Amino acid sequence: MESHKVWYNYFYSMTTLTHIAVGAVIAKAALSKHNIHADPLITYAVAILFSNLPDMDIPLYGLRRAVRLNWNHRIHSFLHFPLFWVAGMILFQFLAPATIRQTVHPYETIALVSLGVHFLMDTFGLHRGICWFGPFLKKQLSFTRLVSEPGLFRSSIALYSRSVIFKAEMILCVACIFFLLMRS
Ligand SMILES: [Zn+2]
């Protein structure tokens, strides 16, 4: 079992912490619109949850199993294909009972934006991109140049800390904290 490989998954692109911070910003921005009829606590919960939902396949599948079977969630998991969520949203609109649709209606746009922003952030990849057209096309797309994974965990951390992704992540996190601390 190559344990360092487990952690490579984490440095493919921006990390969970940044997805959480951006989710909270999406919630605050949505709530600052005075015509929104949504519960603030649920809005934050939905935005943060959907900002991280595509990555939930990793704990569900099991990190150790993923490494053993060389499973990469960006290529092999439906949860990390944007088209899966588009199809899910369309099916939900047609098949869900009206009462459920009415209940979730104030949070639909927030969930969609959170998902979209997750995939946009992941498109700034270090080692992996996003299969925007998966499962039909498995080509990984990235705004940034992808580099191959080094053999050691320490090298992986060093590479990540020198990368433009890490710098962008730091700037984004600081900007999110400022925005969240600002009075609305
Ligand atoms: Zn992701």
If you had to describe this structure to a student in words, what would you say it looks like?
The mean pLDDT is 87. The chain has 10 helices and no strands. The protein has one domain (3-181). The termini are far apart. It has helices spanning 3-8, 16-31, 40-52, 57-61, 63-68, 73-76, 82-95, 98-122, 153-162, 164-181. It is mainly α. Helix 2 (16-31) runs parallel beside helix 10 and helix 7 runs antiparallel to helix 8 (98-122). Bound molecules: zinc ion.
Write out key terms for the chains shown.
single chain, 184 residues, mainly alpha, binds zinc ion
Q: What is the strand and helix layout of this fold?
A:
Elements: H1 3-8, H2 16-31, H3 40-52, H4 57-61, H5 63-68, H6 73-76, H7 82-95, H8 98-122, H9 153-162, H10 164-181
Helix pairs in contact: 2-3, 2-8, 2-10, 3-8, 7-8
The structure holds zinc ion.
Summarize the structure.
This protein is mainly alpha-helical. The protein has helices at residues 3-8, 16-31, 40-52, 57-61, 63-68, 73-76, 82-95, 98-122, 153-162, 164-181. The chain has one domain.
